[in-house]
Amino acid sequence: MQWTLVIPLKPLERAKSRLAPTAGDGLRPGLALAFAQDTVAAAIACPAVRDVAVVTDDALARRELAALGARIVPDEPGAGLNAALRHGTATVRAKRPGACVAALNADLPALRPLELARVLDGAAAFPRAFLADAAGMGTTLLAAAGGSELSPAFGTDSRARHAASGAVELAIGGVDSVRQDVDTGEDLRAALALGVGAYTAKAAARLLITD
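User: That's the sequence. What structure does it adopt?
Assistant: Structure tokens below.
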């Protein structure tokens, strides 16, 4: 089964606000872009992924992520994360109605293609499935097989909300890179310990030099 990943990304100037105490507003947008670049690069390299659609209106992100091979979908709703995901999924399925679609966070800088493939292969057994984040409260991936609505419920306590919506929680070990999203400085340190991609490594080096 081949998947289309839909990755939402808010304007970089507003992204990753909880990283401000660690990175400041000067480096924070660059870190957010680097996370997205490493996420997209790993996703495109995943053998279970057919293509990647990034939903964003940020001009810099659009240019840089398109250069990696992502399809850019304008965030026409402009109404937050879940609306962006619904719009991205609808755009994908307008051309391929039976497409298997998975929403993936844009802040997975340690993402490993083969770990992502394991998660997607596990999701293929269910109409809808999700993977909880490393903190155990959120969601990093929500998958919908062909013929199933994505029905995203990201945000506070999304793990519980996705479970309540009928999506199956995936119990897969050894996929830490798919779980480790980055919202805080502590999250960033955890991702660095796992081993991040080249874009985040470069951006984080600037942060350490600044510190």
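DSSP finds eight helices and seven strands in the chain.
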